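FYI - complex with pyridoxal-5'-phosphate, inputs then prediction.
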Amino acid sequence: MLQPNDISSFWLPFTPNRAFKASPRMLTRADGMYFYDEAGRALLDACAGLWCCNAGHGRKQIADAISRAAHELDFAPTFQFAHPRAFELSQRVAAMAPEGMDHVFFVNSGSEAADTALKIARAYFQKIGQGTRFRLIGREKAYHGTTLAGISVGGIGNNRKPYGPLIPGTDDHIPLPYDYATMRFTRGEPKGGESYADALENLVALHGAETIAAVIVEPFSGSGGVYGSSAEYFKRLRAICDKYGFLLIFDEVITGFGRMGYAFAAERYGVTPDIINFAKGVSNGAAPLGGSVISNKIHDAFMNNSGGEHAIELFHGHTYSAHPLACAAALATLDIYRDEGLFEHARKMEKVLEDGVHSLKGAPFVADIRNAGFAAGIELEMDSKAPGRRGLDAIKLAFHEQNLVVRVGGDTIALSPPLIASESDISKIIDGIRGVLSKLS
Ligand SMILES: Cc1ncc(COP(=O)(O)O)c(C=O)c1O
């Protein structure tokens, strides 16, 4: 029989379910920088939900837009039909992307965006008569979501190991441009690192450029542990892709919409990829939405090489691609980012977060501190007998003792506050983390 308040049925994603259900952490309301639990206790949100609520929580403008859309057009198919907000949103997003990237394919999540970009890359080369290009190259520690394609190009062992053979043509991963011996406790993105990009040359030598379709990278690796990289590194990646004619995909699911102080990290680093994936911040987390911004070169190849006008150019999409409620949420979100200057604010606050987080150097169990844009990671020394145990302890201590919601990947605490954070919010987060570190064992 169903029991009220029975928490056994919900299988939580990426969570130790047994530990959670023994001592749940419930969030029942959110407003501004805060979550609230069942008892009404306020918990400062140090991670913008899950890197997504960049404009803070409980934004009335967004809630009203979703409500209006639900009353007006609850659903419209985007297979063979469409609705005006889908076009409006695609224009708004494309206008924020680098020049020459004027087309947007909508999906519902970052994982689906990864699938979309990788499929488009392979199909593009078929369209232009280079069908031998099928290899998709990822990077160590990368996170591109959880579909089979995403974990194939992803580089986090635990996300891949249980799932048997992955997608053919995705075995290669270039190194993460990070050297623990020389880069620990760097403030901001470590400089240089171009030689890490040169690893692509080795793959060209090994497989032949004519077999490579694309390389996919996060301009800043979030879930893999918060690693930034230099503009020079990304420029070198771009140059190698151009030299050999394969595509560069930026997975900006975290870095898009202000996390790096710009609409996209592509702007921060002055590099134009061929495809930019986005999700999360585009709708402030208030409705599921993701997508890929596609270069004109790729888009036009599909339009010009697919036969007569009756022909479908890309056999791909989702029931909820450009869902009307999600589009309404995103349009309201982009208005807020623009009207409140939140990307510029994030740029200003970046240094405050950097100073705060690096003040934790020397605290117990701190192995490394990294930051880039308006995000930072505090890597804890791993308990060799129980990897991840110290990270989980940090979440629990933060929640129960410091009134703080933090995100942990493995044993790295990730901080990515909503972009509305003030200096005093950042101080409170750093004080809370200091309290957490003092209680770790
Ligand atoms: C870079 C990156 N790509 C893809 C994803 C997957 O997004 P989703 O969880 O919406 O499927 C994430 C999620 O954290 C991400 O950080």
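The mean pLDDT is 97. The first strand starts at residue 29 and ends at 31.
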